[in-house]
Design goal:
172 residues, mainly alpha, Vanadium-containing Chloroperoxidase, domain 1, 8 helices, globular
Length: 172
């Protein structure tokens, strides 16, 4: 067995240990909420609301975060189409599976981590701390619900850091 095959097997095995998609109960419900809370439409609506009712600094940050979401989405989509790693088998997340059959890197992990970097660098301190806690929970929930492997969310998180740091230097 090649090194790559061994790594993919270990990734699948560890991801399966974190999976709750088929297990009813409160932990599954929390994982579903967290998995969806990283959706781009959710953030788009929230940032539109912040822009509509916020002060000038809030509006400026909302525009920067929306720009970051869009840039991250383009980069993630390009990488997914290049790498073409299939999502784990499963029934939950049929919308994700139909519209985006590729899993690496995780767009949710990249988006949330990028938002954390931008929020920590450009926003109020509470936003950075909130996103620091929220981002890994969203990433783990994506694995728990069976739409990503552990390496997908690790790769997405690292990509989100790179994009976030690059955007901070642009936005400052």
């Amino acid at each position: 067995m090649t090194m790559r095959a061994r790594l993919l097997e270990a990734d699948s095995r560890y991801s399966q240990h974190l999976r709750y998609a088929e297990k009813p109960g409160p932990l599954r419900r929390v994982a579903i909420f967290l998995a969806h809370s990283g959706d781009s439409w959710f953030w788009g609506l929230g940032l539109l609301l912040a822009w509509a009712v916020g002060s000038f600094p809030t509006r400026q940050l909302a525009v920067q975060l929306v720009a970051g979401i869009a840039i991250t989405a383009v980069i993630v989509l390009a990488l997914k189409r290049l790498i073409r790693r299939a999502r784990p088998e499963g029934d939950w997340g049929s919308l994700y599976r139909r519209t985006d059959p590729h899993s690496f890197p995780s767009g949710h992990a990249a988006r949330m981590t990028m938002l954390w970097v931008l929020g920590a660098a450009l926003g109020p301190p509470w936003l950075g701390w909130l996103l620091l806690a929220w981002a890994p929970l969203v990433a783990l929930a994506r694995v728990a619900m069976g739409v990503h492997y552990l390496s997908d969310v690790i790769g997405g998180g690292l990509l989100g850091i790179v994009i976030g740091v690059a955007l901070v230097s642009v936005f400052r």
